[in-house]
Design goal:
By secondary structure, the chain is an alpha+beta fold. It is built from three helices and eight strands. Strands 1, 2, 3, 4, 5, 6, 7 and 8 form an eight-stranded mixed sheet that branches. The longest helix has 19 residues.
């Protein structure tokens, strides 16, 4: 597989259901694809020290993050035989219940899409320099800690 060009990963604010639906619809004309897998990360209303999260304010060192996302993407293409791969991550404030991460992979067969999604999501959480500040209703915040 030839190297893919760097793709823009970041979207300001929440990732809309319409954006996700449009992304899926575009793949219907790609008739060599037999399987798709999607991961949607959603902001939870966690309770931390008695305070409920109302939103997360995402930030990133964008230039470095785009490079890291590109490397993760290239690794997935090399190891899983994917036809298509799309990663989108929110920047800015995303309210609870809204989508902040959209990963979409496609391949001729189903087994690799399951494996690729797991690899991608774990690599993003581990390596991408994206930071989340959990915002509370009382205008305080706490830096988000990644968990399994």
């Amino acid at each position: 597989m030839t190297k893919k060009s760097k793709k823009t990963v970041f979207i300001n604010g929440a990732i809309s259901p319409q954006f996700i639906a449009d992304s899926i619809a575009k793949h219907q004309r790609k008739t060599t694809i037999g399987a798709h897998q999607i991961f949607l990360g959603q902001v939870r209303a966690d309770v931390i020290e008695g305070k409920a999260v109302v939103a997360i304010d995402y930030s990133a060192y964008e230039a470095m993050a785009e490079t890291v996302f590109h490397e993760i993407r290239e690794s997935a293409f090399e190891n899983y035989g994917l036809t298509c791969l799309h990663i989108y991550h929110s920047l800015g404030i995303v309210k609870t219940g809204k989508i902040c991460l959209f990963v979409f992979v496609s391949a001729p067969r189903r087994k690799v899409v399951f494996e690729a999604i797991e690899f991608l999501v774990e690599a993003i959480k581990e390596k991408a320099p994206v930071f989340g500040k959990e915002l509370f209703a009382d205008d305080t915040y706490a830096w988000k800690k990644n968990t399994l």
